[in-house]
Amino acid sequence: MFPKYDVIVVGAGHAGCEAAVAAANLGSKVMLATMNMQTIAQMSCNPAMGGVAKGQIVREIDALGGYSGIVTDHTMIQFRMLNKSKGPAMWSPRAQSDRMLFAAKWRKMLEEHPNIDFWQEMVKGIIVKDGRACGVHTSIGLEIESKSVILTNGTFLNGLIHIGEKQLGGGRAGERAATGITAQLNALGFESGRMKTGTPPRVDGRSLDWDAMETQAGDTEPSKFSYTDTPKLTKQRPCHVAYTSPEVHELLKEGFDRSPMFNGRIRGQGPRYCPSIEDKINRFSDRDRHQLFVEPEGWDTCEIYVNGFSSSLPEDVQFKAMRKIRGFENAKMFRPGYAIEYDYFPPTQLRMSLETRLVENLFFAGQINGTTGYEEAASQGLMAGINAHRKINEEEAFILKRSEAYIGVLIDDLVNKGTKEPYRMFTSRAEYRILLRQDNADIRLSPLAEKLGIRNMEERMERVQEKLDNAAKIDKFVRNTSISPDDVNGYLEGLGSAPLKQKVKLHSVLLRPGVNIENLAKAVPFVQDFLSTIDSETIQLSEVNIKYAGYIQKEEEMVEKMNRLESVRLSEAFDYDALISLSAEAREKLNQIKPGTIGQASRISGVSPADISVLLVHMGR
After folding, report:
1. Global pTM?
2. What digits encode the pLDDT tens for the residues 442-462?
3. Residues with Cβ < 8 Å from 605, sequence gap 6 or more?
4. Which residues are paired to 117 by β-bridges?
5. In terms of DSSP H, where are the helices of 95-173?
6. What gap in Å lies between CA 194 and CA 191, rounded to an integer?
7. Better-predicted residue by pLDDT, 305 or 420
């Protein structure tokens, strides 16, 4: 009935979709197995992609040939570049998406791929022979063979939904949980745990008083995620901002005795950086209000997502408290918020390729690894798909360094440090964030994707080369071109910057605080003429490289030092117990994680600089 597949991907959320595409684009024959074909790429929580650090990840996925950025560009209803008041390392793109169009576009792109097949059914277990994953067992007793398996089960593994004192088995509202896989993996020796996440109520936008809220419009000149020729946004839907109040908090507290979070029914650890409204009230009791983002779910729907009001309180408590929010006095609820508990597997059980240590050719990606967020999941799916293909073709694993991508930071953190709470990416987690900006992801990563053999990279590489050539032209122009006081003093005085007294190089003017090359061009015709044929993103990239050259050079020097440690390889068979000079904790952690390099060993929690020195001496370094 079935051919033998190269890769079977279990789960068709953001991780599963990117895993399937990544393996297929390298030439693998892929089956994407899902319990429901109608919920492929479902945005289970907020209808948005990107955000702080997450936006950088989406651009990195796109630069590596993934589809998340393309799908977002085709289906977004609003775009904002966050943190523009801060330095460029912090700038993060975020898009509000049309939930239904997003899923439909993803499914269309998957169905158009000749290397991807689909199967709608629950996967109950993995076929394991001689310590190797060889396919999957389904709920109706089928065996589908493959050379590798990628698990991207999201919140479905033994999922349990909580609404007040009610408990419902399910991986998402209205959908059943997946069973069988956790028990099998535990029997094979895997350690598992429980985590929780939550989602807020959905409400009827026709029942809200929009004039009572603050309007949050998109950027006047919206950008996009993909480096390909995707459509630019020409119209946008606004979001709005509302606030809770002491009265809202008091009403919510009335339900705390029935809250599964406070009465012990929820055992899983929830996300620290995206807490429920009851958790916020409890943890930040000195705050008399909390901000809520009121977000539309699409172009042609009245359904509204109340971002910031995630809750597992009884539905009557949620409803009563919500109606005390300004603008929500007559709100109609489509469905209440809920919390969901699910199984995950601590990611210290993985190799850097996301292959499990216990079972060969078995890969984990997404929330099964303890992460939260579409973007974190999608990036892991991409890497698992690439590495599953490379493993079965006896090629070396593709591993991104911390200095190459936020994706590298994410996976390095998971494998070396693990996580006891849902992991979310932030710019502060990256020590080289000036190098890992959202504007240069294509320059950093598309050449790597081309070397991997990902299809359709030729046009992307032409764009990368054009961007590099134009950036070099701009750099040469500003360093070699002089500008006179008559040309620029009017612009400088408007900024409150000291006027020029003599001709200087354009470069020195550009280094002044507040000077922006595109605004400067509007005031100086010959600059405008030079830049007229160069796109805005390349101009912005060049300006950042010029202004932050000193900081960029420092980070590059730091990377070079760290790469020396990364070049010292460690064998998986290394006997750490034989090195009595290592601390007991270091021996335990090193034996557990089996780092591939000294650099990786240095980032393992519990391994001290003294332990690294012992290893270096032993290695003759």
Report:
1. 0.94
2. 999 999 999 999 988 999 999
3. 416, 417, 418, 589
4. 31
5. 99-111
6. 11
7. 305
